[in-house]
Structures are given as C-alpha cells and as structure tokens.
Amino acid sequence: MNTNSNTYTIVYASVIVIVVAFLLAFVSSSLSERIGKNVELDKKKQILSSLNIDYSKMSDTEVAATYAETVKQDLILNAAGEQLAENGGFDVEVKDENLKDLDDRQLPLYCCQVNGETKYVFPLRGAGLWGPIWGYIALNADKDEVFGVYFSHESETPGLGAEITNEKFKSQFPGLHIRRNGQLSYLSVLKKGKVDENADQVDAITGGTMTSNGVDAMIKDGLSQYANFLNK
Amino acid sequence: MGLFSKQNKEVFATPLLNNNPVTVQILGICSALAVTAKLGPALVMGISVTIILALANVVISLLRNTIPNRIRIIVQLVVVAALVTIVSLILKAFVYDVSVQLSVYVGLIITNCILMGRLEAFAMANKPWASLLDGLGNGFGYAIILVIVAFFRELLGSGTLMGYQVIPEAVYNAGYMNNGLMILPPMALILLGCIIWVQRAKNPEL
Q: Which secondary-structure segment (H or E) carries A124?
C-alpha cells in the first residue's frame, strides 16, 4: 500500500487522533473519582499542616478522621465579614473567587479546635515566579497571633523559590502578630537585613526573591479580604 | 536474533556511556539544568523520562511501517503527549504524592529532545524489542547524568542530599558556607561541561 498518498495520510491522521482522544477520555473518566478523592485528601492534609499537625505517619483514613475531629466548621463569609453559610467552605474554589469583585466573593474560613483551643484557618492564593502559589495560615482565637502556616506551589524553581515549602521558611511564622498597635498590619516577607517599621516580618528566600514577593503579596491580599471579620 | 544478542546488548549499553544522550549527543540539556538543583526531583525526572521513552519507542516501533512519512513527526508527538498524559493521570490516581512532586516535570518530558531524537533515529527503523532496549538505555543514560549533576549541586549548594542534612553543623560553625552559585542554573551547565571534559579526556575516540 502507498503510505505516502494524500488519502492515506488524512485517514491515518484522523484515525490516530480519534483513537488517542477516546483513549484519553476513557482513562480520564475512569480515574476521575479516585483523583478527586486524592485531591480532597491532599487539601485536608494541607489544612492540618497549617495547624502544625503531623500527618506523615497517618493512613488516609486517619487523616480524614483527624480532619473531621479538628475542623469543626468550614464557613463561607463575605467581604463584610457576614456569614453566608455554615458549611461548604471546603468546596469553594479560591482560585475562581479571586477573579470576582471583592464584594461578590465567597470567602471560606475553617474554624478548628486544636487541644481545646479555637484556631481560624484562612486559605491563601497568589502568584509566584512561574505559576500559582497557595497556602493556609492559621491564627489563634485572638485573630492576631499566627499559629502556623502551610505553603505550596506549582512550578517554582527547586532549591530557590520552591524553598517556601521548607520547614525552615515556614517555622519563621508561628508567634508573629498580624497587628501593630491594634491596627491590622499583616506580615512582610523581606530580604534579610531589611526592616519593616509597620509590620512583623520574616526573612525571604535567598535567590527566590520573586517567589518571596509573591508570598508577601499573597498573605497581605489573602488576609485583607477578611479584614472586616478580623476586626469584629 | 536472540533477545539478548550482542547487538541488542550494545543498543542498551552504549547510551549509558559512549553514546550518552546528554554528554555525547548533547540532547535534553534544558531539563538537565532545570531539575538538578535537588537530587530528589532529578531522580524522579530520570525515572519518568526512562519509562515514557521506553513506552513511546515501543509504540512507534510497532506503528513504524504504517506511519505516513510526511506526518511522522506529528504522529510521534501525539504518541508521546498521549503517553505522558496517561502516565500523569495514573500517578495522580494511585500515587498522588509523587504526582505533586512531578507536576512541573511532566510537561517538560514532552518537550525533551531525547524523546523525539530516539523515536526519529531509532524506533522508526527498528523492531519493538530493540526499541525498548534503546529507550531504556537512553533513559538510564540521561538519568545517570542528571543524578551526578544533582548530587554535586545539592551537596555543595544546600549541604543536603535527598533533603537530609549531610554536612554536619560543626563544619558550618567552623566557617564553611553553602555555595549559593551551585543552586543557580549556570552551575549545572559548568558541571555538565566538566563531566563532558572528563569523559572525552578518558576516551579519545569521542
């Protein structure tokens, strides 16, 4: 058969495309349930991580149980600080909400109990150097002192920007205050040696300036959406 | 021809050293710079490329007599992209933690020139079994170089290996400092240059 004729080429290309399309659709739909569960479990792990709960030795069911025990409510707030729903914050896509006007946004807030103390966990999402970065920040019941943080990223440079996920970076946050003189000042991520007069600060990653700036903006933007709730 | 004939062994073994895809064919340099700041990602990238390359080689080799010459590159690309997508979905479903680590690199695999290079140069003209060996050989050859470069970059740049601290605190107290240049991409190129230099000095035939 002449494999170089136009008809053969067109038929061959069509068949290949259709076969591959069906194959991908089949694999994707047959795995989507499992993938959805994994994504959900991973989100729970991230929230637990921001509460300084070590899940590394837990099985998947234990993680789910610990999450259910710790996170009492996943509220949805609006920018005015009013409660829109008592549950369902977990399913809110922060990525999509950030595209809306501030007044239209649904803001998830996780009310948690750790060792009998109330903690609030706020989701954060922003831009790093190469792609999105996100995280969770847990505040004590006074809505001032930081209890713990979690950061992750999609495609920051390993060894540089990707170091925001490192314990060493994250361990700088607990104990800081997001208020100065009673006013919300949030936190600053600054190059070592620089001093912010108006807010508590952590050291940026050496060589990861753009990602560090992203974290800085992410914390300020993320928390400022909740300003009315924080000031309540 | 036996499964492990001399010829087949050569197909597998030469890419490991004398015809290494990175140091001799100078392919896949881009990812060698991007993912070698840490040993862990380099290892994962090496393994993923090996698996995808071996599978793609076999598929293209099976199709080789039917592929119209004029659209062969597109067909190769479709096969590679489909394989990468399927592998990444399977990873997400069964080993989610690994897929999180891999997120960036999966995209990089499709653009890795080693894949297109081997498909075009070997799989289009050889039988499936030989193509499988060629894919594995080139994949391992690529992985070895990545691991060597990443070993030095992580050790000297961060003082760790696979994320574990290996340079003791006492050495730092004595005034030792991590070399910040090591974790920047140019150093990967310099290290790669050194490897090529050593290899060529040892083997004048290259």
A: strand A117-127
